[in-house]
Design brief:
Length: 107
């Protein structure tokens, strides 16, 4: 099959571009996935900011709270921020410090 040098060069010229194309497709997919993940995080933060605003109506806050159901990957964060539908007021500094310690341990 690959007997002569010309055969080897021919196969190399065929396989090398295919390898480069495959690498480019994988890289593009990873970049797109990361961009989508970041955009989803930005939207999640916008919903939380909307809930925290004092100048919004009750209906708008209800809609924002309902929108939080779309962010299942942040369920543990939502559970730590809210307690029985209310924002946890007591011990906010301690809760934040505990969360930061957990993050530093996982890294």
């Amino acid at each position: 099959m690959l007997v002569t040098v010309q055969d080897m060069i021919g196969w190399g010229l065929l396989v090398l571009p295919l390898i480069v194309i495959a690498w480019a497709v994988i890289w593009l997919a990873e970049q797109t996935s990361e961009r989508n993940r970041h955009e989803r995080y930005v939207r999640f933060q916008a919903v939380l900011r909307h809930l925290a605003r004092d100048d919004t109506s009750w209906a708008e806050k209800m809609a924002a709270a309902y929108e939080l159901r779309q962010y299942k990957e942040y369920r543990h964060i939502i559970g730590r921020i809210f307690d029985d539908g209310k924002v946890r007021e007591e011990g906010q500094a301690a809760a934040l410090e505990t969360e930061l310690k957990d993050v530093s341990k996982s890294g």
